[in-house]
Design a protein that fits this description.
By secondary structure, the chain is mainly alpha-helical. The chain has a domain of about 210 residues: ABC transporter involved in vitamin B12 uptake, BtuC (Orthogonal Bundle), CATH 1.10.3470.10. About 80% of the residues lie in helices and about 0% in strands. A hairpin with a 2-residue loop joins strand 1 and strand 2. It is globular and about 80 Å long.
């Protein structure tokens, strides 16, 4: 049995757009929206050295969704969102509470919190699987491949899948918040003490960022699952940071990378017949490796050239001294 299907470059680029092209189009659009929203928030998380907080929240939304359903006996997306966001904010509070009131370090507090909350969610789903209509595989990997078949909404003469519309509104809201509070977000990310001295409420900005992160994760959860959303929070920003030191440039590059992830991931998933969300993350990692190798300032090739140049200078000086 062949593990990898035979590769045909013509079929690789043509296949997603010859059959069911409408489904492919919505998958790419949804992938871009999810990646862009996650990359936008993730850039500030990476800057604050809080990248794994997204991991904690993405795992914590599971018990929030289950508890919201059990208390309301309703599958309303609004109630699910409230439960998931509440669970995400509770996870952030619990991490800080454990760190401040014990000798446990932040990374350990984070590990204790998200594993415990995720386990509680798994137990709730296992106990009430006949009542909570959640598939664990969907929870882990998402269902972006079925976004075209989701309930739609008529907008400007075309049927737009509701998950896509919801994610577009979320991304638009993030962009508005970024334009309004860009200075506050940047200053508090680099130096919270300086921000406080300038009259910027650093704590409120922090909780605002955590709230935005929770909302993004909740709306991304359905499409890419709890595990893959973590990579989408981190990959765009760390790839951009290899190419530039300016946050504004990194944010712009994150949006460009998001489009590349979505498009390349769709073609890769069609070729390998695998999860589109997983393929998008793999495409993101390949792009990261490419930036890591070819970056003009921090790339491996640049470092090798600098190392060889340094050796030549050293050998030249040594040779000159020996001759004298």
């Amino acid at each position: 049995m062949k593990m990898i299907p035979p590769f045909d470059i013509v079929s690789f680029f043509r296949a997603p757009w010859t059959e069911a092209w409408e489904s492919s189009l919505w998958i790419v659009i949804m992938g871009f929206l999810v990646n862009a929203a996650c990359g936008l928030v993730g850039s500030f998380l990476v800057l604050r050295r809080m990248a794994l907080v997204g991991d904690a929240i993405s795992h914590s939304v599971l018990p929030g969704i289950a508890v919201a359903f059990l208390l309301s006996t309703s599958r309303s997306s609004g109630l699910m969102m409230v439960g998931a966001v509440g669970a995400g904010l509770f996870a952030v509070w619990l991490i800080e509470f454990i760190h401040r009131n014990t000798r446990v370090k932040p990374d350990a507090a984070l590990g204790v919190t998200f594993t415990t909350l995720f386990s509680i969610g798994v137990i709730l789903i296992a106990l009430y699987a006949d009542q909570v209509d959640l598939d664990l595989e969907c929870v882990l990997y998402g269902e972006i491949g079925f976004v075209y078949f989701a309930e739609s909404f008529a907008l400007l003469g075309m049927e737009v899948p509701i998950p896509v519309l919801r994610m577009a509104v979320t991304l638009f809201g993030l962009l508005v918040l970024l334009l309004l509070f860009y200075k506050e977000a940047v200053v508090t990310s680099f130096d919270p003490v300086l921000a406080t001295s300038l009259g910027i409420p650093a704590r409120w900005v922090h909780y605002g960022l955590m709230l935005s992160l929770s909302v993004v994760i909740v709306f991304s959860f359905e499409s890419v699952g709890a595990i893959l959303v973590i990579a989408m929070l981190i990959l765009p920003s760390v790839t951009g940071s290899l190419l530039s030191d300016r946050l504004a440039h990194i944010l712009i590059m994150s949006a460009v990378f998001s489009a590349l992830y979505a498009l390349a991931g769709l073609h890769l998933a069609t070729w390998l017949n695998c999860s589109p969300a997983g393929a998008m993350v793999v495409a993101g990692f390949l792009l990261f490796c490419l930036a890591w190798i070819l970056s003009p300032r921090r790339g491996l090739l640049t470092q090798l050239r600098k190392g060889r140049r340094g050796l030549r200078i050293e050998h030249g000086c040594t040779g000159s001294t020996g001759f004298e």
